[in-house]
Amino acid sequence: MSVMSSPVEFLELLAREAAAVEFEGPLVAARAAGLPADRLAELEQAKTVALRVRALLERRRRRETELSGLYDTVSDLAGLRDLDDVLRAIVHRARHLLGADVAYMTLNDEERGDTYMRVTDGSVSARFQRLRLPMGAGLGGLVAQSGAPYVTANYPEDDRFHHTGEIDAGVGEEGLVAILGVPLRLGSTSIGVLYAANRSARPFVREEVALLVSLAAHAAVAIDTARLLAETRSALEELSAANTTIRAHSSSVERAAAAHDRMTALVLRGGGVEDVAAAVTEVLGGALLALDAEGRLLARVGEIEEPDRADMVEAVAASRTEGRSVRRGPLWYAAVVAGAENLGALVLRPDDDLVDADQRILERAALVTALLLLFRRTVAEAEGRVRGELLDDLIARPLRDTDALRSRARRLGIDLDAPHVLVAVGDDAIAATGSARLRVLSWATTYASTRGGLAAARDGRVVLMLPGRDAGGSARSVARDLSRVTGRPVTAGASGPACGPTALAATFTEADRCLTALGALGRAGEGASTAELGFVGLLLGTVGDQGERDVARFLTATVGPVLDYDARRGTALVRTLEAYFGVGGSLARAAEQLHVHVNTVTQRLERVGQLLGADWQKPERALEVQLALRLHRLRTLTS
After folding, report:
1. Mean pLDDT (whole number) for 573-581
2. What's the CATH superfamily of 552-638?
3. pTM tops 0.85
4. Mean pLDDT computed over 385-400
5. Average pLDDT, stretch 81-90?
6. What is the rounded CA–CA span in Å between residue 91 and residue 117?
7. What pLDDT sits at residue 545?
8. Do 441 and 515 form a contact (C-beta atoms < 8 A)?
9. Is 103 within 8 Å of 95 (Cβ atoms)?
């Protein structure tokens, strides 16, 4: 017998891992060589043993491959970073180890009560990749519901499963026939299904089922591990956030304590609003505005523009109502209040967001600012009373000890022998509520003191004594600025300059008369001095008996008969003349103004002609009559 016809040849075939069909070769050659039957039986037995050995080696190689895949899966789990990557690796290995056309995984959706496609490998159908399976429907739905493996060699023809149109359409579009599904289990709970499927009918053997069960167990561990890692990360993030919050809160509390101590020290050592603003910005950063109740700037620290007036009014009102600082865009507003009185606001543009403790710092700064403003007001009111009493004594009649007045003025830093002007403000500025009168007087006191002068309330009017020589300019400035404060036109009359207590007292009388004259001349809401009123100013400046006698003589000579006639009979000839001249000599318009008939005006003017003479309407006489009427009115108002 040749070597090629001996059992050794089967060992050679095993050694080179020949295909099973090649093991028939030695038998075919032996039959062709005509070997006896006993030799052929020996070769047949050797072939059978060789094939069994080959099958055993094949199973061991396959088992080695499976164990290697499981080892790789365990390695993936040990270095788990991304759950999707691990699940894709498991599904890919399932497809590779089972030699399947497609492998995929579904997970249970507890909220919707079904199972959905999570990962696929080898799939070509988008519809299949989006499938959702109701519990109990299809092979996968049954596995997910029961928690037991299921296998079918031909799913479309297998009536063990509840077929639905959506599932069958997806499976059909993918072209799947044989399907194996095993549960993903965590303890006694099924969380999903791992599948291997082929596009041709073939059974899955027990070893393949066991292998897929092992991969499914690893996939379940991966999912649970990822969940635990996610929960751990979330807990760590929450702890880190809590720690950050605690540190920030601790830091803010320390800042608040430091700011409180610093602002308390400011109050004790007599600091101002500017110091409070600087302290706030040093603690909180950013820039700050301190504004009074009228929106005027009290202090500015850093680069910050004044906000829109309407926006600021709304924000401050909200802060006052809520009793807290409020945010509007990048700015924080804190109302400065004392009881129900609005004293102003702090406007902060911080560099960083404010936490609660930082807001408390701003609100405490607003409280300290209110205390400082009230203290400043109290001091100003006390000083204003002293200065007001000096001016009241200075313009009183009869004038008291002038040397004592000079001494009191020097203590206030005022030289009464230097040029001063007197300004009288009309009752149109203070004919309102008591609070409005106090507001006007407070403004006048501040206005005068900042210019080195005095202010006082006297006989329902406000009087200012201001250093300088421009009486008219001072009157106009006072009228303009006070009109802005009160929101209504203000009339101011002035006189001067004058030096010394005696002259200043007389100058007040002229300023007061000038104020009255402005009203009589229809110039309410203006400011002017006696020197700017023409002949009226000359009248106001005639002080003494001789001046009064000259005026009386002129009135008697010019319109005396008319004045006497009205006085004896209670008629209205003077008023008729004023109306007649006031409308340019029009009888109809004079009658309309007097609310009488034109004939009545004509009869009254005829009576005037009888009293004054027929030439009273000639230009020269008419001018004297008008002048006399104006002097009579001014004399009546100023007497």
Report:
1. 85
2. PucR C-terminal helix-turn-helix domain (1.10.10.2840)
3. no
4. 69
5. 77
6. 12
7. 45
8. no
9. yes
